Amino acid sequence: MGTDARVRDRRAQRWSALLALAAAAAAALVLLVFAGLRSVVLLGVGLAGLAVAAAGAWCALTRRGLTRVLAGTLAAAAPVTVLLLYAWAGLLWVVLVSFALWALAVSAGGAALRRDTRPERTPEVRAAPPERPFLLMNPRSGGGKVGIFHLKEKAEQLGAVVHLLDTAHHEDVVALARSAVNEGADLLGVAGGDGTQAMVAGVAAEHGIPFMVISAGTRNHFALDLGLDRDDPSSCLDALTDGVELRVDLGFINGRAFVNNASFGTYAAVVQSPDYRDDKVRTILEMLPDLLTHQRGPRLVVRAAGTAIDAPQAVLVSNNPYRMGDPAGLGRREVLDSGVLGVLGIKVDNAAQAAGILRGRYGPGLTALTAEEVVVDADEPEIQAGVDGEALTLPTPVRCWIRPRALRVRVPRHRPGVPQSKPPMNWRRLRRLALAREHPAAGSGAT
Fold it and tell me: In degrees, to the nearest 5, what angle opens at C-alpha 237 toward C-alphas 193 and 126?
């Protein structure tokens, strides 16, 4: 970046910080000027409404029958009641204006702080195109994206050997991938779901050859964190001719590779119910009360980084940690080569703890850790797990670990990339940025 560009960037950063501080001050002034001491009551009523709504939602999930109906009604009525109270007091417009100003302050502050951070990116290297790429494609994955985007034909035109999976009969994708390597394949790729991606990625890592992701699945979480185009999976095929290589971590659970995450507890139990596919909502509502109150299912104990999480209702172990401070970035990982697993444990035993979850990562019911190894034990010999979307039953204790930079991933040189995460709000830093004096560019002084 040139000197003039840096000056403009700093000036824009300063003005964004000034706007953030001014909007935050205005939000507070609107409350104080037009509501006076009642502004404290307004805030208290709003927080109480959120707490009641969260507690009602918890009771609705953990109870059945009339109690569930009443609790759900309470959860829905609480925020509406708060708004009606504001309107009755003639202060609804004050709340809305103050909220809008606060949202502006947070947005401008985030823009200013984002200029301070440079996103971490996995290093990429140029590599010669593969000579004998082998691709597995699931024609049913993602609603038939393989056929919609003509992926098989396009890949074959680029010199790849393509195997279309037989959706009517089970095929062992690990055996197919190993057979291809034995026959000389120097790249393995998958157009399919993340579960299939993970199993073939494990084979690629085992043999030290590149792996290629084609975003033809339903959710494409791994493709998202690699910065691939999820709207047009055919663009991923550009990696065959104009690609770069990334070195990323690979997670393992009892010896099986995973690229995204492994979940335990409530979610894993629900999705493995025989009735889940036929009636998802009814199955969830029927099973949740017993699962959330520990009347059904194993009692889990998670050990990671010297910390024990006893009896959590849900546990997520991820290949690199997920973003926590940015709601827009939930479900995304900043990097894929940090060398550690992310661990999220949720333990909520009553309505008060459910309300505390509103505090996010600082809530008492949420534990967020990073570790190189995680052990999930239980009071039963087997537990259910969801591994990259695949439902499994595993013997306890379940051991998860990570192999840093174990997987070579070939991606297109030109791709959308991973969106930068929102930095945590730091008002002291914003104040320093706003008060900073601008320095003239070098060489711009008087002659």
Answer: 110
How many Å separate Cα 183 from the centre of its chain?
37
pLDDT band at 149 (very low <50, low <70, confident <90, very high): very high
Between residues 352 and 379, which one has the greater pLDDT?
Answer: 379
Largest CA distance in the chain: 84
DSSP symbols for 294-357: TSSS--EEEEETTEEEES-SEEEEEESPBP-S-GGGTT-BS-S-SS-EEEEEE---SHHHHHHG
Identify any residues that bridge with 189 across adjacent strands, giving them in sequence order.
135, 212
Q: Give bridge partners of residue 373 from the DSSP assignment.
A: 401
**pLDDT, tens digit (0-9, with 9 covering 90-100), for 297-345:** 788 999 998 999 998 888 889 999 987 654 444 568 888 999 999 998 8
Q: Tokens 């999220």 — which residue? A: 344
For the entire predicted model, the pTM comes to 0.77
Residue 285 has pLDDT above 70, yes or no: no
Strand partners, 263: 316, 386
Cα angle vertex 430, ends 427, 436, to 5°?
A: 145
User: What's the length of the chain?
Assistant: 447
Residue type, 282: R
Residue 91's alpha-carbon distances to 40, 69, 80, 88, 446, in angstroms, are 13, 31, 15, 8, 56
| Residues whose CB is less than 8 angstroms from the CB of residue 68 and which lie 6 or more positions away in sequence, other chains included | 59, 60, 285
Query: Do the beta carbons of residue 322 and residue 330 sit within 8 Å?
Result: yes
What kind and span of H or E run contains 391? Answer: strand 390-395
Main-chain dihedrals φ then ψ at residue 103, nearest 5 degrees: -60, -40
Amino acid at site 3: T
Helices (H) and strands (E) in the chain, counts: 13, 17
CA 182 distance to own-chain centroid: 36
* 57 sits in which H/E element: helix 38-62
Neighbouring C-beta atoms of residue 370, cutoff 10 Å? 17
How many angstroms separate the Cα of 373 from the Cα of each of 198, 250, 264?
Answer: 19, 12, 16
d(CA 139, CA 162): 12
Q: Both ends of the chain: CA-CA distance in Å?
A: 25
pLDDT at 146 over 90: yes
Segment holding 191, helix H or strand E: strand 187-191
Contact call for residues 311 and 347 (beta carbons, < 8 A): yes
Residue 71 in contact with residue 59, Cβ under 8 Å?
A: yes
Which residues does 188 contact at the CB level (< 8 Å), separation at least 6? 133, 134, 135, 136, 177, 180, 181, 200, 201, 203, 204, 209, 210, 211, 212
